[in-house]
């Protein structure tokens, strides 16, 4: 995964900080920061970060890389 700024399909922007490994399940997790509001730090499974979802009848990426 490229570190940098991603745009969520709903419009908000996030900074991908790094990819970590869950200590119990060994699942890859994305560590990211919201670039709006209070700028909270979040984690989400990598598989969910990379998945495509349906929006307005079209398949789109949940998070689209936009800049470094």
Attribute tags:
68 residues, mainly beta, globular
Characterise the protein shown here:
The protein has one helix at 46-50, and strands spanning 4-8, 13-21, 28-34, 41-45, 52-55, 58-61, 63-67. The chain has 68 residues and is mostly beta strands. The chain has one domain (4-67): DUF1653-like domain (SH3 type barrels), CATH 2.30.30. It has a five-stranded antiparallel beta sheet with strand order 4-3-2-1-7.
Going by helix content, strand content and strand pairing, the class is mainly beta
Q: Which CATH class is shown?
A: Mainly Beta
Rg is 12 Å
Number of helices: 1
Across the major sheet, the strand order is: 4-3-2-1-7
Order of helices and strands: EEEEHEEE
The CATH superfamily label reads DUF1653-like domain
In short:
The protein has 68 residues and is mainly β. Helices cover 7% and strands 57% of the residues. The strands form two sheets. A five-stranded antiparallel β-sheet has the order 4-3-2-1-7. A two-stranded antiparallel ribbon has the order 5-6.
């Amino acid at each position: 995964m490229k570190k940098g700024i991603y745009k969520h399909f709903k419009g908000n922007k996030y900074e991908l900080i790094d990819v970590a490994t869950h200590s119990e399940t060994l699942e890859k997790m994305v560590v990211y920061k919201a670039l709006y509001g209070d700028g909270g730090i979040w984690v989400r499974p990598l598989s969910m970060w990379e998945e495509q979802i349906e929006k307005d009848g079209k398949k789109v990426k949940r998070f689209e890389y936009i800049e470094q």
